[in-house]
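QUALITY CONTROL LOG
STEP: pairwise intake check
CHECKER ROLE: data steward
CRITERIA: each record must contain a sequence immediately followed by its structure tokens, with no blank fields

ENTRY 1 OF 2
RESULT FIELD BELOW
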Amino acid sequence: MGRLHRRGRARWRLVVADAGPVALANRQQAVADLSADCWRGRWCREVRDDNDDGWPEYDDAVPIVATTLELLATRGPLGPVWWRFGRSGRHSLIEALELVPPSEGSLDRETWIRLIDILTVHSPAGPDTRCLAYYPMTLGAIDFDNLHVRAGRLGDAEILYDMPEADLADFSPVNVWAEDRSWVLCTDYDL
């Protein structure tokens, strides 16, 4: 079982193996049943005007997703192989955990701009420092032939937050380094 974090909220993923399809499904269901208090959330009510309306609260709930090793091997970890406890069907990991941009490791715009300012002050060539920037694979797209690496001047790095490609809009790079390798910055904590 592995644990994923996103902005302070834990998410768990479970991969079951070494059994037939029925046994694997039963194992996943057993874990879902045993962990229901963790992922189900709680029902809140407000009684007024003879109305007993309610709503689910998930503030303290921990999303848990499960799959089989066979599904991972045949469809890959980003394919529709994940079952989120409490929901029906199989989904991609991003859909199952409701991960939305910016990706893990991406900074907000204000922090990105401040960081570029600091790096510029402390780099020997200042704003003329040649650097490279790497964007993570976004929203399930695995394209090893196009790794979203950009090169340019550190003084122009502010614009990297607004790349024209649709899948890079409103993201900061997760790795930035000087071309001479005198420094490197990594913001993706899942290295």
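ENTRY 2 OF 2
RESULT FIELD BELOW
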Amino acid sequence: MRAAILPHMRNLLPLFLLLPSLSWAADSNLELRAMTQADQAGRKAGNINWDVLGAEDTQRRVRVRAMLAAGSVKTAEDFYNAALIMQHGSEVQDYKLAFSLANISAEIDPESKSFTPAYKSGKWLMAAAWDRHMMNLGKPQWYGTQITKPHGKALWEVYQLDESAVSDAERQAHGVMPREEMQKKVAEMNKSAK
């Protein structure tokens, strides 16, 4: 696993050099927090209009990139929120950036104790961003965070999983639910959809 991630980590070096100047939630970016709340609210709506949500996601990603360029993403919460927004992208670069940002959040605050994550911990988001990246490349996910409803199918399913890519212990260390629990979650989602 580590060998596959190493080439991507080289791109993170400039961001890791910033780590000493980064801080916990005391000065978190309130605009970015509000954007993340809007991102999550759009996904919890009963009848999601994916075209509208996609356009809103694009606007949020553009704004996150501007915030990164301006240096206004500084805390573990900021990096987490930026990662969550970028994870809802549509291009490989979006998922790579989401993975990198989640990684920085987890480095600053490994257990996400300095803030209340919009969804799950920075470590989980790092795993989810990596899985989304692999899925976007048409490859099996590693951690098992991605649930999809393939085109033409009525039921949800766990996206293809490479069970040998990471161990169950690594999945657990990233806060990813066990595979059996994920299957139960999918079954519940499919029951609710009927």
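INTAKE CHECK: passed for both entries
DESCRIPTIVE NOTE, ENTRY 2: The chain is about 60% helix and 0% strand.
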